[in-house]
Amino acid sequence: MRFAVLVSGHGSNLFALLEAEARGALAPAEIAVVLSNRPDAPALDRAQKFAKPTVIVDHRDYAGRDDFEAAMLAALDPYRVEAVVLAGFMRILETRFVSAFPNRIINTHPALLPSFPGLDAPAQAIEYGVKQSGCSVHFVDLGVDTGPIIAQVAVPVLDDDDAGSLHERIKAREHELLPEVVQLLAAGRLQCVGRRVCHLPAPHVPAHNANENAKP
Ligand code: GRF
What is the residue with the minimal CA distance to atom 8 of ligand 1? Predict the structure, then answer.
């Protein structure tokens, strides 16, 4: 399954995906292209180091979201993308883009949804005083961080944490979880039943039959 990874910033989650692909842990997912809405995103350098095609669609060049999304779809079209990962992509997606990839867009969010959606989730968690936060990988719908949750990992909030230190600890877990979910999606092992996402077992691969070449 051919994926586009959409980024806006640093790209540590993109790097985790690229490394997973390089060591064979992402198959049958394949990163076909990296799209950034920011021309100066450090994530673009990471993609280029892995020799991945990159495209820039700067949202500031478009009058509205619909035009921006049409431009993104046009830019992705040559790469025959079947699914999309939002890895620190800082734009809200609307109907045109979301409906182009039904149940094929996933996002990673640095909190245990439905707590602390939207911007600055680690700061929200610190401010609220929770003792556990974490990361959530979810399908993207038309709300902000409201789509069906695929997987979550909890991360403790320490007494001396600030938003930055908590976010770094959460990111370390995102870097493990996001490639796992991408692989599951590509392998057809995620099944949505309403809002619940079931993880299907890996298909049984029969052990190599030592006698298969034996003559009858
Ligand atoms: C991640 O924490 C992700 O959950 C959030 O934005 C951050 C992106 O970090 N949506 P990076 O650009 O992948 O380093």
Answer: 88
